[in-house]
Amino acid sequence: MTTKTTLGITFILMFAFVFVGAMYEIWRRLGLLIRGVRTTAKIVGVETRPDTDDEPRHFPVVEFTLPDSTTITVEARTGASDSAGLRPGTSIDIVYDRRKPEVVVIDSLDPGFTSFGTLAALFVCAIAAAYAVAELALEITA
Fold it and tell me: Among 54, 90, 101, 133, which one is least packed by beta carbons within 10 Å?
């Protein structure tokens, strides 16, 4: 096996792993935004943790009431790099999963995994992976 073949296979496997993960995240977020319930919650606290770059990321803890009068208090899955708009007592629009109300996303803080730019980058990588597969197939058949 040549170095070019090894690199091609490595690229294809790495791309497949990233592509499947990204598509799952896009599917999950779109599903929640489509079938989720929109409501207004009150911020009751803010949890701060470092992100992957060791920069502080602020995750609001929100409280809201379900239609059956059950009160839910949960930390949102989306956070912000700036905590200025996340003061306790502030109202904020959320989307929660009606099947699992503890799954809460805040549209205004969504990092944008469903944005056009992300989809375009995945498309370009898919073309590069298809090219690598074609090159690999030609090398194997030669």
Answer: 54
Is residue 113 within 8 Å of residue 58, measured between CB atoms?
Answer: no
Q: How far apart are CA 48 and CA 80, in angstroms?
A: 9
Tokens coding 119: 């989809």
**H-helix or E-strand containing 128?**
helix 116-141
| Residues 64/96, Cβ–Cβ less than 8 Å | yes
| Dist. CA 32–CA 97, nearest whole Å | 6
Can you give the pTM of this predicted structure?
Answer: 0.61
Q: How far apart are CA 114 and CA 33, in angstroms?
A: 11
In order along the chain (142 residues), what is the average pLDDT of each group of 10 residues?
Answer: 72 78 76 85 90 82 93 85 79 89 79 60 76 76 70
Cβ count near 56 (within 10 Å): 13
Residue 26: is it exposed, middle or buried by C-beta count within 10 angstroms (0-12/13-18/19+)? middle
